[in-house]
What we know:
Radius of gyration: 21 Å
Helix content: 25-40%
CATH superfamily of the largest domain: ATPase, nucleotide binding domain
Number of strands: 25
Largest sheet: 7 strands, mixed
Shape: globular
CATH topology of the largest domain: Nucleotidyltransferase, domain 5
Structural class: alpha/beta
Amino acid sequence: MYLGIDCGTQGTKALILDADSGQVLGQGAAPHTMVSGANGRREQDPRQWLDACVTATRQALDAAGINGAQVRGVGVSGQQHGLVLLCEQGQVLRPAKLWCDTESSAENDRLLAQLGGVQGSLKRLGLAIAPGYTVSKLLWTREQHPEVFARIAHILLPHEYLNYWLTGRCCSEYGDASGTGYFDVRTRQWDLDLLASIDPRLAGALPELIESRQAVGTVLPGIANLLGISPQAVVASGGGDNMMGAIGTGNIAPGILTMSLGSSGTVYAYADSAQVSPEPEVATFCSSSGGWLPLICTQNLTNATSAVRELFALDINAFNQQVQAAPIGCDGVLMLPFLNGERVPALPHANGSFQGLTSTNLSPANLCRAAVEGTTFGLRYGLDLLRASGVRSTSIRLIGGGANSAVWRQMVADIMNTQVVCPRQPEAAALGAAVQAAWCMEPVSLASLCQRCVQLAPDHHASPVAANVARYEAVYRDYRQHIAKL
């Protein structure tokens, strides 16, 4: 048995996987809260993650009906880019700045200029640093909280912090390390000179780099007792949520796209080599399966659709009914859903807006559908960039909360003009973490584990409808014209 944990923005989820049968036996979940500020601040207290991890794990064990001593391995997935700072005693120094935090945009601009602009960053690191990446958060901390900065002993990402809590060891895996902004994705090494330009001490605070199939260690006895599992359980390297989501959807070889409809929106594919795109919005991350993971990420997805849904006090079913009731194109209403700036398209300072409103098309149904269409157009924009960089696929594996909506699944199929199918297990990142733990422990290939454990749901699929594809193309052109003016 293997325990997969996914520490996301909104909460932590856990599941128990029987790797022999490929079946998920039980699941659990616990929420997080976030501190938001008008200046783009998005932070969380990492202690919430620990409490949520204990709650979700115990729920999963209870639901599975197994003895925790049967858990042989643990895999952890975490939200990418977040900055967790520890002192010499291993205590958290301040709240973690998250992937969606844009408070360090000015610092990112300065670092980007130092690297020689976008092209200089691509040449040096294999990707263009963006405000959400970890590196600008370090510079921001030095300038805004010098007393905290002076006490830094360990620099960790969220999943690495959970691994540290579980084992007492600071380690980093190539996939999650890719999103720090001080890591060369081609050579799979830290860029120590870039960190030294912020402060020479920082190199000594970095975690040890390990391979995706390596173990971090075993669970500390006290933590094992809290979780209700064996202290002999091995903790795998784990990785970022997108890297674990790739494993959890079987996206470990060329030809498959994974698309996530979560708080953020992501699209990614496996590549055998680091084929760095000249387009800065495409992040050529390392995968957690031995290759690379070219990826695009939009900052606004279900956060934007939920904001409109809550505006009308609708539950999920009622919201979907409103979306279904409106026509493609929403009678001319178009939402630019940039409520927190945007990464793809690269509009970090943009605001959200509704375009084309008139006295005849202003209705809840049109506004609800416009929110879903607008966020999906952002994913289409990113998919166009991935395709231009050479990514080829025959299908999209759709995950995240939005994938539960039949109308949204059909919209994705039509806007992307691609077959869509959902994995049977929607918690792909937690599943991927559990599969990776099994890969770390058992003498089998990752491909065979994915074949056994990643199952598709034929009743949750959608095929593009030619008439819809043509209608969406016209609306998408309108979307492109509007963002070109921003």
